[in-house]
TrEMBL record:
Family: Belongs to the class-V pyridoxal-phosphate-dependent aminotransferase family.
Keyword Transit peptide: no
Signal peptide: none
UniProt GO molecular function: alanine-glyoxylate transaminase activity; L-serine-pyruvate transaminase activity
Taxonomic source organism: Ectothiorhodospira magna
Domain Aminotransferase class V, chain residue ranges per copy: 75-339
Entry-linked PANTHER family: ALANINE--GLYOXYLATE AMINOTRANSFERASE, AMINOTRANSFERASE CLASS V
Keyword Lyase applies: no
Cofactors (names): pyridoxal 5'-phosphate
Protein name as annotated: Alanine-glyoxylate transaminase / serine-glyoxylate transaminase / serine-pyruvate transaminase
SUPFAM superfamilies with a match to the protein in the record: PLP-dependent transferases
Organism classification: Bacteria, Pseudomonadati, Pseudomonadota, Gammaproteobacteria, Chromatiales
Length: 395
């Protein structure tokens, strides 16, 4: 049978879910630049710039700072397979879906997870961590999520790291949704290993995972008694390709054009200024929050622990949340996210990330959500959302 499949042309969407986020046209254009070899001297020079730019984004001087050639989940695995050895006790703090994934990584590495269970929608409790570490002096690592994508809760990385270090544990931190969107200071806060993704607040194409490892973490990796279970993610090998030497050892064929995109996304972050980017996410979050609350909707997370870039909104009683999302996509080309795990059907997740964190998107989201909910006879107040957001923008 002859094939009749033609080129794929995706519809134009406004992405305000938990990721991916809308991509800056400069980043899209960077992906179309001519491909060169992954060992070409010009490409190696760009790799060095990439490390500098990632160090800026993470606020670190860690030499081992690089993008893993795979999505954020592979960044997570890179941290765990290199730092967890069979028999290690690892304290895993769970306050959402991605803490649960950390636990599974520990188990797959042959480690023994000890879980600190926290309420979903709340940050990790430092006292619970302290009590758990006192009860498990054999623990070698502590793992927790900085910016929990499933709930919109932000945990206190600095305090949790201090607690872990006081018990001679290294820390692994998930900041897939945090990097570029809210305050993060890897060196000042003493983080040992951290991973992120490119498709959230960096507004880059999915498929790369920035990671960074402290000197203490590198020493732990080099002193392993067992080989790293993953050849591809073994940093002892990857360091030969991303290392400081001008002559790079071949490890894998890097995703060249995707790395062009990340380089451009990080240049954009540098041009805006990291603290300005944090402030921008906070500013547009305040406008969105004002509009949602004026409509009569409530956010899941307490204000003190709320991520500006990921807003978990409680679904009003009697509302078919999936139908709302379907109408937003069908009529307005607007994507927002559903809840996960025990929050499925109970919340929407509205992302304000990177290039998509702007006034136009906030206003579109408020207008569209209000129109759909009023049509469905939801218990909300009409006509107040946009004026409330406008008051925030007016200062």
């Amino acid at each position: 049978m002859p094939m009749t499949i033609q080129s794929f042309h995706p519809p134009v969407r406004t992405l305000m879910g938990p990721g991916p986020s809308d991509i800056n046209p400069r980043v899209l254009a960077a992906m179309s630049r001519p491909i060169i070899g992954h060992l070409d001297p010009a490409f190696v020079g760009m790799m060095d710039q990439m490390k500098d730019l990632l160090q800026y984004a993470f606020q670190t001087c860690n030499a081992l700072t690089l993008p893993v050639s795979a999505p954020g989940s592979a960044g997570m695995e890179t941290c765990f397979v290199n730092l967890v050895e069979p028999g290690d006790t690892v304290v895993v703090c769970i306050n959402g879906v991605f803490g649960m994934r950390m636990k599974e990584n520990v188990e797959r590495c042959g480690g023994t997870p000890v879980v600190v269970e926290c309420d979903w929608g709340r940050p990790v409790d430092p006292q619970q961590l302290e009590d758990t570490l006192k009860a498990h002096p054999e623990a070698r690592l502590v793992a927790f999520v900085h910016a929990e994508t499933s709930t919109g809760a932000c945990s206190d990385v600095k305090t949790l790291t201090q607690v872990a270090h006081a018990h001679d544990c290294l820390v692994i931190v998930d900041t897939v949704t945090g990097l570029g969107g809210c305050e993060l200071r890897v060196d000042d806060w003493g983080v040992d290993a951290i991973y992120s993704g490119t498709q959230k607040c960096l507004s880059c194409t999915p498929g790369l995972a920035p990671v960074s490892f402290s000197e203490a973490a590198v020493a732990r990796i080099k002193a392993r008694k067992h080989p790293v279970q993953s050849w591809f993610m073994d940093l002892n090998l990857v360091m030969g390709y991303w290392g400081p030497n001008a002559k790079r050892a071949y490890h894998h064929t890097a995703p060249i054009n995707a790395l062009y995109a990340l380089h451009e996304a990080l240049v954009l972050l540098q041009e805006e200024g990291l603290e300005n980017a944090w402030a921008r996410h906070r500013h547009h979050h305040e406008a969105l929050k004002a509009g949602l609350e004026a409509m009569g909707l409530n956010l899941l997370v307490d204000e003190a622990h709320r991520l500006p870039q990921l807003n978990a909104v409680k679904v009003p009683d009697g509302v078919d949340e999936a139908r709302v999302r379907g109408l937003l996509l069908e009529r307005y080309g607007l994507e927002i996210g559903a809840g996960l795990g025990p929050l499925a059907g109970k919340i929407w997740r509205i992302g304000l990330m990177g290039f998509g964190c702007n006034r136009k998107n906030v206003q579109l989201c408020l207008h569209a959500l209000e129109a759909v909910l009023l049509e469905m006879n939801a218990p909300i107040e009409g006509g107040h959302a946009l004026p409330a957001a406008s008051r925030i923008y007016a200062g």
